[in-house]
């Protein structure tokens, strides 16, 4: 499964990068395949391990902010591995065909 999530502290002002870094640090230390962009962090693995990482990432932000917002989207598909890379590769292949 792939989970894309965004965790943000509320009530701490506009500069939330330091708080978000706490969450991303948890994800990266998990050892699961992951990517972070300007809006979301995506993580790939089995249900229990991915949801545990999301829970710990939220807790890391919650330690320093009393209120936390979580947005989560999941792609639950049995038997698929390396979806973080293969899905993007498929789109890139179609885009390359457009140039030919």
Automatic annotation (TrEMBL):
InterPro entries: MTH1187/YkoF-like, Thiamine_BP, UPF0045_domain. SUPFAM superfamilies: MTH1187/YkoF-like (SSF89957). Residues 3-92 form the Thiamine-binding protein domain. Gene3D superfamilies: 3.30.70.930. It comes from the Bacteria. Belongs to the UPF0045 family. This is MTH1187 family thiamine-binding protein. It comes from Streptomyces olivaceiscleroticus.
């Amino acid at each position: 499964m792939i989970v894309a999530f965004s965790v943000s502290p509320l009530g701490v002002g506009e500069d939330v990068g330091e708080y978000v870094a706490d969450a991303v640090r948890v994800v990266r230390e998990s050892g699961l395949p992951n990517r972070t962009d300007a809006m979301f962090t995506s993580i790939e693995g089995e249900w229990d391990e991915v949801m545990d990482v999301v829970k710990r990432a939220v807790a890391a932000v919650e330690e320093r902010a009393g209120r936390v917002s979580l947005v989560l989207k999941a792609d639950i598909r049995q038997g698929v591995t390396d979806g973080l890379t293969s899905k993007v590769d498929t789109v890139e292949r179609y885009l390359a065909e457009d140039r030919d």
